[in-house]
Design a protein that fits this description.
single chain, alpha/beta, Rossmann fold, six-stranded mixed beta sheet, 5 helices, 6 strands, globular
């Protein structure tokens, strides 16, 4: 059995005309979302032994909040370029390459690919539109990351910032 916790990056600022999508930072709301959801994950003992993030500014800032909550030094956060705006199949390829010794992976990525990935892994349409900074933890029924496949997981936790509080 393996555990995969997916986090959609927190709320980002609207891109300025001269700014690339990749360089968008978190908004004030996004920073609060990331901090709150990272604390929630820590309180639920969802501590990963491997943390992967898209290298986009907003995703790395979200990953940084989780790393801080879990006391994982940022140099240990694996920046994976293939996660940036990746589709479900590309995300599966990233998961297939996770080191064998890891049992719980936290992956910070982007929609719509991350939601499609979660929904296909768990065969669960409820996961088809993860809100910003949603936390979706799945139990994978496989012996290794390389053998993970579609419909090989079940949802064990699904939470998002608005479920914690309506005020930001």
């Amino acid at each position: 059995m393996r555990q995969l916790t997916l986090v959609r990056h927190a709320k980002a600022q609207v891109a300025r005309p001269d700014q690339s999508d990749f360089d968008r930072a978190l908004s004030a709301r996004g920073k609060a979302e990331a901090t709150a959801m990272a604390a929630r994950a820590r309180d639920l003992d969802l501590v990963p032994d491997f943390l992967i993030s898209s290298p986009a500014v907003r995703a790395l800032a979200t990953a940084r909040a989780f790393a801080r909550a879990f006391r994982i030094p940022m140099p240990h956060v694996h920046r994976e370029e293939r996660v940036y705006l990746a589709g479900a199949d590309a995300l599966m390829a990233v998961v297939h390459r996770v080191p064998r010794h890891c049992h719980h992976v936290l992956l910070v990525g982007h929609n719509p690919g991350l939601s499609e990935f979660a929904a296909r892994l768990a065969d669960d349409e409820y996961l088809a539109d993860l809100p910003t900074c949603a936390l979706c933890s799945l139990q994978l029924h496989c012996d290794s990351w390389a053998s993970a496949g579609w419909r090989h997981a079940e949802r064990v936790l699904y939470d998002w910032p608005d479920s914690l509080t309506e005020e930001w």
